[in-house]
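Researcher: Following up on the earlier apo prediction. This time include the ligand. It's NAP, with the SMILES given after the sequence.
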Amino acid sequence: MTETVRWGIVGPGRIADSVAPDFAHVPGAELVAVASRSAERAETFARRHGIGTVHTGYQAILDDPGVDVLYIATPHPQHRAISLAALAAGKAIMVEKSFTVSSVATREIAAAARDHGVFAMEAMWTRFFPAIVRLRELIAAGAIGEVRTVQADLGVRNRTGPDDRFLSPELGGGALFDLGVYVVSFAQMLLGSPSVVAASGALAPTGVDLEESIVLGWPDGRSAALQVSLQCAMPGAARVIGTDGWIEVPPRFHHPDRIVLHAHGADPEEIVLPATGAGYAHEIDEVTRRVAAGETESPVMPLADTVAVQDVMAAVADRIGMIPEEGPARL
Ligand SMILES: NC(=O)c1ccc[n+]([C@@H]2O[C@H](COP(=O)([O-])OP(=O)(O)OC[C@H]3O[C@@H](n4cnc5c(N)ncnc54)[C@H](OP(=O)(O)O)[C@@H]3O)[C@@H](O)[C@H]2O)c1
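Model: Understood. Below is the ligand-bound prediction.
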């Protein structure tokens, strides 16, 4: 491997378009290639972002010796085939959230990463924001005592057409895998894996979920109350409540530029910590440094946490009667 970590994008859609400019903010990272199922889409994307190498079809980027890491930005059910093929080809991967739409596929990818000794991480960008890093430091230092409960909501008033991936079962549509993953991952980061998962929600005529409330429970009484919606706008706020105070993450909590510490008996303290670029630079930086160091996981977003979050989402889907449609295992 060269000193520069060379990145390629797979699936140049909406999120890839937002993430691509952030590579410029990361020392040691270079965005060198893009792969699309369509030559025209790959070329247009490459021109827009100044990317040198264009691949038509995903296999071509797996065969490119000039690429070290793939940023996989296809819809979630389509993460499985490209992730497994990439790991088998020795390419490190950063996979958009939701990692997959099933516990089976997520475990399969995690096992493949370990078997091949290749780096893999879910692109849960929230965990790498400076404000969230500080939140975790404050909690570890006892600033709010023992964390007992987490509250978070995230909703958008989605008005896209029936053909959009948000409503499509084959493309992993629904609130859970697009928005629920954020609130569940936030609670899992702070409280670990729950022993109780309760949920109530509504499905769209296509069978994907439109909204739900989720309650998570732990054997010692700790809990989380989470709400997501694809039909109602919600503030997108989070609170972490402890025995000695609470920390507020103002909207939108999944890409915050500040937190507010409410320590018991003290005035609220606002801590402003802006993100770099559009906020994706932090996760790109994490992967770049870990891959350059020859590591195979991120301790901030380990595969065990991704599996734990996926298991909670599977339980939520079960409670509300949604049957996720996982994608194929092979390209
Ligand atoms: N981190 C964040 O803030 C954030 C925000 C939004 C979405 N996401 C995640 O990013 C992923 C992609 O979301 P998006 O909104 O960017 O989706 P999108 O605009 O539909 O783009 C997805 C791309 O994947 C490729 N693709 C491969 N197989 C496909 C298939 N069967 N159907 C449709 N497209 C397919 C397409 O590119 P080609 O055909 O050109 O190869 C398409 O442009 C999802 O997992 C989503 O949850 C993350």
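Model: The chain has two domains: 5-125+280-301, 130-274.
Researcher: Noted. I'll compare it with the apo version next.
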